[in-house]
Hints:
By secondary structure, the chain is mainly alpha-helical. Helix content is 80%, strand content 0%. The chain is built from 3 helices and no strands. α2 (20-41) crosses α3 (49-82). It is elongated, with a radius of gyration of 18 Å.
Amino acid sequence: xxxxxxxxxxxxxxxxxxxxxxxxxxxxxxxxxxxxxxxxxxxxxxxxxxxxxxxxxxxxxxxxxxxxxxxxxxxxxxxxxxxxxxx
Length: 87
């Protein structure tokens, strides 16, 4: 519970960023950490492993984000237009 709360605080801080380059920098750092963690799990190491894991993590994250944005945003706008807010 403490760990999830801590992650929630970090995510709230990230989502509060106003500038796109701040979010991009944080995303890059998170991707580097994830690539490094993935590299450390591999038993058979080779030259360029960190680059490969970074590319794998960033490609999959970009793909999932793009699909989520393309699917979610049009539906979100549609739902917002259907909601009638009281005056």
